[in-house]
Amino acid sequence: MAYETIILDVAGGAYRLTLNRPDKLNSFNARMHEEVRDALTRIEDDAGARVLLVTGAGRGFCAGQDLGDRDVNAGPLDLSQGPQNDYNPLVRRLVALPLPVICAVNGVAAGAGVNIAAACDIVVAKASAKFAQAFSAIGLVPDSGGTYLLPKAMGQARAMAFTLLNERLTAQQAAEFGMIWKAIPDEDFDAEVDAMLAKLANAPTFGLASAKRAIRESWSSTLDDALDRERDMQKQCGLSPDYKEGVNAFKEKRAPQFSGARPA
Ligand code: LHQ
């Protein structure tokens, strides 16, 4: 499908998905949801995919749902439809993708935009970016996993106040609170994001995907479960070509050439 509200680029297995409605701070309308779904299907279907970067065009990352999309005066609305059809599948797919997902928060993130970022594996933000949970300002509960991901990342006291007070967090605060990996000076942002993307595009993808899955699955398991899962995953990783390559490269004192391939 031809995209009007996102840009999807791929080079060497590195996908870059840019939300592209800058005049609306890249808020989601129905078309954008449809295009993001299509893009994720393309990535899921590409056996050569190594990493996904999600970012925004212009001065914002994503302001959540487009508030102009619904007529709130036209009668009762069923707002469960948005989570059910759009945001829940999106968050589930990002979490399940068998490759690292980087979120490059290039500017303000609000509402579902914050929580979509929180669902990605590595979140970096421009130092000038701000985060606002926003839902409380319009009488809604955070969706897109915000009531789960944020307390897990930064603790309940911070997640609760961030949600209920709707105060904006700076990128630096978000990093100090453990909500994101790091805040990057604006002038270094693009270069640092590009370098991270290149690094992960040449990484042992199967091992990284296993680590991602193990960490995600730890959310709902005991230490005993985690130990057993690690044992089973280590068996698979040990059969991957990248394990062999990594150890050989180490012994031969050279840079490894990882293929990202799954075990045969
Ligand atoms: C926008 C938006 C926006 C449209 C800025 N929509 N135009 C799930 C299920 C079902 C239903 C509802 O929703 C959800 C998920 C959700 O995400 S609900 C939460 C929706 N998001 C919000 O409530 C955030 C609303 N936006 C804001 O609070 C501010 O705009 C933020 C904090 C994002 C940025 O503030 P500023 O930097 O001061 O920018 P601004 O407010 O001046 O906005 C710039 C433009 O972007 C402006 O348009 P204009 O034509 O006046 O220049 C805004 O109207 C537009 N915009 N967010 N969500």
Give a written overview of the molecule.
The protein is α/β, with parallel strands linked by helices and 264 residues long. The protein folds into 2 domains: 196 residues, Alpha-Beta Complex (2-enoyl-CoA Hydratase, Chain A, domain 1), CATH 3.90.226.10; 47 residues, Lyase 2-enoyl-coa Hydratase, Chain  A, domain 2 (Orthogonal Bundle), CATH 1.10.12. It is 46% helix and 16% strand. The chain is built from 10 helices and 10 strands. The strands form 2 sheets. Strands 1-2-3-5-7-10 form a 6-stranded mixed β-sheet, sandwiched between helices. Helix 3 crosses helix 4. The radius of gyration is 19 Å and the shape is globular. The mean pLDDT is 98.
Number of domains: 2
| Content-based structural category | alpha/beta
CATH superfamily of the largest domain: 2-enoyl-CoA Hydratase, Chain A, domain 1
Overall 3D shape: globular
Write down the secondary-structure element order. Answer: EEHEEHEEHEEHHEHEHHHH
> In order across it, which strands form the biggest sheet?
1-2-3-5-7-10
SS elements, strand count: 10
Return the CATH class of the largest domain.
Alpha Beta
Q: Can you count the helices?
A: 10
Question: Termini separation (Å)?
Answer: 33 Å
Ligands and ions found? ligand LHQ
Task: Give the second-level CATH assignment, the architecture of the largest domain.
Answer: Alpha-Beta Complex
Q: Beta fraction of the residues? A: 15-25%
